[in-house]
Sequence to fold (262 residues):
Amino acid sequence: MTSSHSFRLRILRSGSSGNAIFLEAAGTRLIIDVGLPAEVMARELDSIPGASPITAILLTHEHDDHAKGAGALSRLLDAPVLANAGTLAAAGDLLAGVSTERFVTGVPFRVGGVQVEAFPVPHDAVEPVGFVVSDNGGRMVIATDLGGVTDDLLARARDADALILEANYDLRLLSVSPYPWFLKNRILSPTGHLSNDAAARAVVEVASDRPQTVFLVHLSDINNLTPLARDTVQWALEREGIAAVRVEAVRPNGTSPLWEMQ
Ligand SMILES: [Zn+2]
Ligand SMILES: [Zn+2]
Fold:
Protein backbone atom coordinates (compact mmCIF):
# COMPACT_ATOMS: atom_id res chain seq x y z
CA MET A 1 0.00 0.00 0.00
CA THR A 2 0.98 3.63 -0.11
CA SER A 3 3.16 5.19 2.52
CA SER A 4 0.07 6.82 4.01
CA HIS A 5 -0.63 3.43 5.55
CA SER A 6 2.62 3.23 7.40
CA PHE A 7 2.76 3.73 11.12
CA ARG A 8 5.54 5.82 12.57
CA LEU A 9 6.22 5.95 16.26
CA ARG A 10 8.77 7.52 18.54
CA ILE A 11 8.84 7.61 22.31
CA LEU A 12 9.95 11.22 22.82
CA ARG A 13 10.46 10.75 26.55
CA SER A 14 9.72 8.03 29.07
CA GLY A 15 9.92 7.88 32.86
CA SER A 16 8.72 9.56 36.01
CA SER A 17 10.14 12.96 35.00
CA GLY A 18 8.17 13.14 31.76
CA ASN A 19 6.33 11.10 29.14
CA ALA A 20 5.44 11.84 25.53
CA ILE A 21 4.86 9.75 22.40
CA PHE A 22 4.74 10.77 18.75
CA LEU A 23 2.56 8.55 16.61
CA GLU A 24 1.65 8.87 12.93
CA ALA A 25 -0.76 6.79 10.91
CA ALA A 26 -2.78 7.43 7.77
CA GLY A 27 -1.38 10.96 7.56
CA THR A 28 -2.62 11.76 11.08
CA ARG A 29 0.00 12.86 13.59
CA LEU A 30 -0.73 12.50 17.28
CA ILE A 31 1.11 13.36 20.46
CA ILE A 32 0.15 11.13 23.36
CA ASP A 33 0.89 12.80 26.72
CA VAL A 34 3.01 15.91 27.21
CA GLY A 35 5.07 15.57 30.37
CA LEU A 36 7.77 17.90 29.04
CA PRO A 37 8.04 21.65 28.54
CA ALA A 38 6.62 22.72 25.18
CA GLU A 39 10.01 24.01 23.95
CA VAL A 40 11.63 20.63 24.61
CA MET A 41 8.74 18.92 22.81
CA ALA A 42 9.12 21.25 19.83
CA ARG A 43 12.83 20.44 19.64
CA GLU A 44 12.15 16.70 19.79
CA LEU A 45 9.52 16.98 17.07
CA ASP A 46 11.92 18.97 14.88
CA SER A 47 14.23 15.96 14.86
CA ILE A 48 11.54 13.83 13.16
CA PRO A 49 11.24 14.46 9.41
CA GLY A 50 7.67 15.39 8.44
CA ALA A 51 6.35 15.53 12.00
CA SER A 52 4.21 18.60 11.47
CA PRO A 53 1.48 19.65 11.58
CA ILE A 54 0.33 17.77 14.68
CA THR A 55 -3.34 16.81 14.35
CA ALA A 56 -4.14 16.45 18.06
CA ILE A 57 -2.71 15.92 21.53
CA LEU A 58 -4.21 13.03 23.55
CA LEU A 59 -3.88 12.61 27.30
CA THR A 60 -3.94 9.31 29.20
CA HIS A 61 -4.35 11.02 32.60
CA GLU A 62 -3.68 14.27 34.43
CA HIS A 63 -0.50 13.42 36.36
CA ASP A 64 2.21 16.04 35.84
CA ASP A 65 4.64 13.66 34.16
CA HIS A 66 1.98 13.18 31.42
CA ALA A 67 0.14 16.48 31.22
CA LYS A 68 2.22 19.39 32.49
CA GLY A 69 3.23 20.66 29.03
CA ALA A 70 -0.07 19.92 27.26
CA GLY A 71 -1.57 23.42 27.41
CA ALA A 72 1.60 25.17 26.32
CA LEU A 73 2.23 22.70 23.49
CA SER A 74 -1.37 23.01 22.32
CA ARG A 75 -0.95 26.77 22.02
CA LEU A 76 2.47 26.46 20.39
CA LEU A 77 1.33 23.97 17.74
CA ASP A 78 -2.27 25.11 17.47
CA ALA A 79 -3.44 21.53 18.07
CA PRO A 80 -6.42 20.62 20.29
CA VAL A 81 -6.09 18.57 23.48
CA LEU A 82 -8.32 15.48 23.54
CA ALA A 83 -9.13 13.77 26.84
CA ASN A 84 -12.05 12.33 28.77
CA ALA A 85 -14.17 14.43 31.12
CA GLY A 86 -12.34 13.30 34.27
CA THR A 87 -8.89 14.11 32.91
CA LEU A 88 -9.99 17.46 31.43
CA ALA A 89 -11.48 18.48 34.76
CA ALA A 90 -8.47 17.30 36.77
CA ALA A 91 -5.95 18.93 34.41
CA GLY A 92 -7.90 22.17 35.03
CA ASP A 93 -5.54 25.13 35.10
CA LEU A 94 -3.00 23.42 32.84
CA LEU A 95 -5.50 23.64 29.99
CA ALA A 96 -6.92 27.11 30.67
CA GLY A 97 -7.71 28.88 27.41
CA VAL A 98 -6.72 25.84 25.34
CA SER A 99 -8.85 24.23 22.63
CA THR A 100 -10.03 20.93 24.12
CA GLU A 101 -12.26 18.12 22.88
CA ARG A 102 -13.83 15.49 25.06
CA PHE A 103 -13.97 11.81 24.25
CA VAL A 104 -15.84 9.16 26.19
CA THR A 105 -13.85 6.25 27.61
CA GLY A 106 -14.89 3.08 25.77
CA VAL A 107 -16.46 4.85 22.80
CA PRO A 108 -14.31 4.78 19.62
CA PHE A 109 -13.77 8.09 17.84
CA ARG A 110 -11.96 9.28 14.75
CA VAL A 111 -9.07 11.70 14.63
CA GLY A 112 -8.16 12.50 11.03
CA GLY A 113 -7.57 9.15 9.32
CA VAL A 114 -7.30 6.95 12.40
CA GLN A 115 -9.69 5.38 14.85
CA VAL A 116 -8.91 5.81 18.52
CA GLU A 117 -10.45 4.08 21.49
CA ALA A 118 -9.67 4.92 25.10
CA PHE A 119 -10.05 2.08 27.59
CA PRO A 120 -9.87 2.26 31.40
CA VAL A 121 -6.70 1.24 33.23
CA PRO A 122 -6.26 0.84 37.01
CA HIS A 123 -4.17 3.82 38.19
CA ASP A 124 -4.50 6.42 40.94
CA ALA A 125 -5.69 9.25 38.69
CA VAL A 126 -9.25 10.54 38.12
CA GLU A 127 -10.10 8.70 34.87
CA PRO A 128 -6.91 7.08 33.52
CA VAL A 129 -6.97 5.35 30.14
CA GLY A 130 -4.90 3.45 27.63
CA PHE A 131 -5.37 3.91 23.88
CA VAL A 132 -5.88 1.71 20.86
CA VAL A 133 -4.95 3.56 17.66
CA SER A 134 -5.75 1.83 14.40
CA ASP A 135 -6.08 2.37 10.69
CA ASN A 136 -6.66 -0.15 7.91
CA GLY A 137 -3.03 -1.12 8.02
CA GLY A 138 -2.24 -1.67 11.66
CA ARG A 139 -3.08 -1.46 15.31
CA MET A 140 -1.14 0.03 18.15
CA VAL A 141 -1.89 -0.17 21.88
CA ILE A 142 -0.58 2.20 24.54
CA ALA A 143 -0.89 1.29 28.22
CA THR A 144 0.88 3.46 30.81
CA ASP A 145 0.49 4.08 33.78
CA LEU A 146 -1.26 1.09 35.32
CA GLY A 147 -1.16 -0.91 38.53
CA GLY A 148 -2.24 -4.17 36.91
CA VAL A 149 -3.08 -5.83 33.61
CA THR A 150 -6.80 -6.23 32.98
CA ASP A 151 -8.50 -8.80 30.74
CA ASP A 152 -9.77 -5.84 28.74
CA LEU A 153 -6.19 -4.73 28.01
CA LEU A 154 -5.12 -8.26 27.08
CA ALA A 155 -8.03 -8.59 24.66
CA ARG A 156 -7.20 -5.27 23.00
CA ALA A 157 -3.45 -5.89 22.83
CA ARG A 158 -3.73 -9.41 21.40
CA ASP A 159 -2.34 -9.36 17.85
CA ALA A 160 -1.49 -5.65 18.01
CA ASP A 161 1.36 -4.65 15.72
CA ALA A 162 2.93 -2.57 18.46
CA LEU A 163 2.38 -2.46 22.19
CA ILE A 164 3.71 0.35 24.34
CA LEU A 165 3.59 -1.02 27.86
CA GLU A 166 4.76 0.19 31.23
CA ALA A 167 7.55 -1.82 32.92
CA ASN A 168 8.16 0.41 35.92
CA TYR A 169 10.07 -1.66 38.45
CA ASP A 170 11.82 -4.87 39.33
CA LEU A 171 10.34 -6.19 42.56
CA ARG A 172 13.74 -7.01 44.12
CA LEU A 173 15.21 -3.60 43.27
CA LEU A 174 12.11 -1.85 44.59
CA SER A 175 12.25 -3.77 47.86
CA VAL A 176 15.87 -2.71 48.54
CA SER A 177 15.57 0.81 47.09
CA PRO A 178 15.87 3.95 49.23
CA TYR A 179 12.27 4.95 48.44
CA PRO A 180 10.16 5.60 51.56
CA TRP A 181 7.57 2.95 52.34
CA PHE A 182 4.56 5.10 51.49
CA LEU A 183 5.96 5.52 47.99
CA LYS A 184 6.82 1.83 47.62
CA ASN A 185 3.29 0.96 48.68
CA ARG A 186 1.84 3.40 46.16
CA ILE A 187 3.95 1.90 43.35
CA LEU A 188 3.02 -1.67 44.37
CA SER A 189 -0.69 -1.00 44.80
CA PRO A 190 -3.23 -2.32 42.24
CA THR A 191 -3.66 1.28 41.08
CA GLY A 192 0.06 2.10 41.05
CA HIS A 193 2.63 1.01 38.49
CA LEU A 194 3.44 -2.16 36.54
CA SER A 195 6.36 -4.46 37.38
CA ASN A 196 8.69 -6.09 34.85
CA ASP A 197 7.22 -9.49 35.75
CA ALA A 198 3.64 -8.33 35.21
CA ALA A 199 4.63 -6.74 31.90
CA ALA A 200 6.34 -9.99 30.85
CA ARG A 201 3.24 -12.06 31.64
CA ALA A 202 1.10 -9.66 29.62
CA VAL A 203 3.43 -9.71 26.62
CA VAL A 204 3.48 -13.53 26.57
CA GLU A 205 -0.30 -13.54 26.80
CA VAL A 206 -0.86 -11.22 23.82
CA ALA A 207 1.87 -12.59 21.53
CA SER A 208 0.84 -14.10 18.21
CA ASP A 209 2.71 -15.68 15.30
CA ARG A 210 2.84 -12.33 13.52
CA PRO A 211 5.73 -9.94 14.02
CA GLN A 212 5.01 -7.63 16.93
CA THR A 213 7.07 -4.93 18.60
CA VAL A 214 6.85 -4.18 22.30
CA PHE A 215 8.18 -0.94 23.74
CA LEU A 216 8.71 -1.04 27.49
CA VAL A 217 8.28 2.45 28.93
CA HIS A 218 8.09 4.43 32.16
CA LEU A 219 11.06 2.54 33.63
CA SER A 220 12.07 3.80 37.06
CA ASP A 221 15.65 5.07 37.21
CA ILE A 222 15.93 3.86 40.82
CA ASN A 223 13.89 0.66 40.91
CA ASN A 224 14.71 -0.78 37.50
CA LEU A 225 17.49 -1.32 34.97
CA THR A 226 16.90 -1.03 31.25
CA PRO A 227 18.57 -4.37 30.30
CA LEU A 228 16.80 -6.12 33.20
CA ALA A 229 13.36 -4.94 32.05
CA ARG A 230 14.09 -6.03 28.48
CA ASP A 231 15.57 -9.39 29.50
CA THR A 232 12.71 -10.18 31.89
CA VAL A 233 10.24 -9.87 29.02
CA GLN A 234 12.59 -11.50 26.49
CA TRP A 235 13.23 -14.53 28.73
CA ALA A 236 9.52 -14.99 29.37
CA LEU A 237 8.95 -15.07 25.60
CA GLU A 238 11.83 -17.51 25.06
CA ARG A 239 10.51 -19.83 27.77
CA GLU A 240 7.25 -20.02 25.81
CA GLY A 241 9.07 -20.52 22.49
CA ILE A 242 7.78 -17.21 21.11
CA ALA A 243 10.20 -15.75 18.56
CA ALA A 244 8.18 -13.21 16.57
CA VAL A 245 8.05 -10.48 19.24
CA ARG A 246 10.73 -7.80 19.30
CA VAL A 247 11.28 -6.12 22.66
CA GLU A 248 12.69 -2.61 23.08
CA ALA A 249 13.14 -1.05 26.51
CA VAL A 250 13.31 2.75 26.58
CA ARG A 251 15.76 3.89 29.25
CA PRO A 252 14.54 6.27 31.98
CA ASN A 253 14.33 9.85 30.68
CA GLY A 254 15.40 8.50 27.32
CA THR A 255 14.06 8.52 23.81
CA SER A 256 13.46 5.66 21.37
CA PRO A 257 14.60 5.61 17.75
CA LEU A 258 11.93 6.36 15.16
CA TRP A 259 10.08 3.11 14.49
CA GLU A 260 8.24 2.54 11.24
CA MET A 261 5.81 -0.16 10.25
CA GLN A 262 5.23 -0.35 6.50
ZN1 LIG B 1 0.41 8.43 36.60
ZN1 LIG C 1 3.54 8.48 34.91
Summary: The chain has a mean pLDDT of 95.
